[in-house]
Amino acid sequence: MKTMALARACVWRGVGAGRRPWLFHGTFSNMSTEAMGAASADAPAPPPPPEAADDSNHGRRELRSVSQRFTNISYSPLRMNLVAKLLRRLTVPEALAQSTFTKKKGGAIAKDLIERCASVAEMKYGLSHDQLLVDKIFVTQGKGQKMVRTMGRGRTGIEFVRNSHLNVTLTEIDFEDRIRAASTRNQQTKWKKLEARAGSRAARP
């Protein structure tokens, strides 16, 4: 009886602290302190946390990559981004062909940067053009400049000239992974031909 009275007093004292006594009244009135301690001791232990998944690459070798950058290009970032979207995720021969025949000014700039990046990869790792992929190519805004804009009737205004930065990352192609992930037979044939061409060029003295 003393335990029940003490429990009820503790519960009703908690009303001022914002607690709701009807949530705890049945628990304290029907179970003594000793019984509560025994129940907590007999409660099963919580299950152990699941083991973290193995994030290893399962023996895959790390693909080599080379990055280059052109800064302060006198070309709008919006227009340069159109060329970047055209060349992204293409192989180096395809990217060079697309940048050669595009009519945009940024095509020649992107072609020079890709060729320079491919030459660095060849000198550093011995990779040919057929073994490289344009993994990342993105544009950032460079330093702008305000200039005088001449208008009619002798008036002048302000013209803002925008510059851009072009960033390119070429990555080595994993032909086995590409062939395995191909969704159509034509894509598989494409990667197999490219692998054979890259192997024949690598075998040349």
Automatic annotation (TrEMBL):
The keyword Ribonucleoprotein applies. The keyword Protein transport does not apply. Residues 35-60 are annotated as: Disordered. One of its GO terms (biological process) is translation. Signal peptide: none annotated. InterPro entries: Ribosomal_uL22, Ribosomal_uL22_bac/org-type, Ribosomal_uL22_sf. It holds the Pfam family Ribosomal_L22. GO terms for cellular component: large ribosomal subunit. It comes from the Eukaryota. GO terms for molecular function: structural constituent of ribosome. Keywords: Ribonucleoprotein, Ribosomal protein. Belongs to the universal ribosomal protein uL22 family. This is 50S ribosomal protein L22. It comes from Rhizochromulina marina. The lineage of its organism: Eukaryota, Sar, Stramenopiles, Ochrophyta, Dictyochophyceae.
